[in-house]
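Per reviewer request, we include the raw input and output of the structure prediction for the construct analysed in the revised manuscript.
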Amino acid sequence: MSQALGSQLRLVRSSLSARRALQSFSHLMNLGRWCLVASLLLNGALAAVVVLRSRNTPSPSVESAAPAFRPNGPGSAASASLAATVMNVPQVPWEHFDTTDLKLLAARLRHAGLSRQVVAAIVQLKVRAAFDAKRVALAQSLPQYPYWRDAPGRSRDIEFSAGMKTIAREEADVLSATLGDDGVDLSPWEDLERSRRYGDVSRQTARQIQRIDEDYQDLLAQARSQLLRTPLPEFRERLALLESERRKDLAAILSPEQLDAYEMRTSSTTARIRGSTAALDLSEDQFTAIYRLQRAFDDQYNPSNTSFVGTRPDVSPEQRAAEAKLSADIKAAIGPELGARYEQMRSPEYFTTQAVVSRLGLPATNVPQVIAVQQDIEQRAAQLRTVPATTFADRQRQLAALAAEANQRLSPLLGGDRGIETYKKNGGYWLQNLTPVVVPTPSPSTPTTPPR
């Protein structure tokens, strides 16, 4: 039985092999026929070209070296124009452009008819190759670590970061000296981004602003690296001095209007307002009103205009009064409803609540409602604690009633009991603090067993 089955399998395999061989032979025969036809057509075309060339005397120009052009099908007029353009380009040896003199190279490329974008791109590649050698040398000057060992990040090495910025500035200076204004902001996209960041200033002024900011960022990084060895008051004074000097340098190259527009786009005050108003969809006038009020407050109580951890001094009663006035002024400027939402979004609990709501897959509109419940319950609990109660048990029952009300109001906003428990563990600690656990004290009459 097994021998018969083996024989059948061998017959099937041999049949398949024969079929594949016949198919391959058939494909080869068909391919051969097509090759023969293509060869005959190609020979005919070459004969036609020879006959046509024998009738016309070629001119001693680049056209004789260019491939023959035959218009065929739609778009033949444009193709003919392109072919004529290519044939009219003068033959220039590459050695003509192989020079280390960048200004001479740029001049020759322009003379050859290349656009300013192409000229700038070629020069930038040459300059980049030269300065890449400096970057490699700087990187190799750092301690080298094998791949299986953790290496400290280069961004944390102040000397390395400063060296890379120095090389980048030298490279930019060479490009500017070689290409002039053509070497900076070549694309409409870069022009748009420059206008968004720096306002209505020239390209050269934008480069000067960028240089000033880079210099002071380096100084801020150095000051921050010495934070642990610097007394906090001295550190704050140094930050304030750096910010003051930076604004003086900017005022030297910008008009008051340009400086104000630049700071409105880039200051840390603006960054904080943007973070607090991402979901408010403010108009330009509303944003400007908030910025003016907040910037005046920052200039008085946060002159360094920074947000480093530990740089804010203890809040004085005067500053607390100023913060309350700032909140009232903002509400008056943009309206009470929008002002209340803005104040909510500035609260520390906003971002934690937002993270919980997003994690639970609930609408973002639930976030301000949750915070509104928290503020209402906490305010009522604070008032309750200030009012004398008859007994401690009465105070506990009143707080427990507030906690039950809070859970009832939060349940539809957080998706039920599971969402409330998630909220309690991730920022909603105030719910647990409403009803603190009371540890019973042992009775004096209870006998205690002395240790043995």
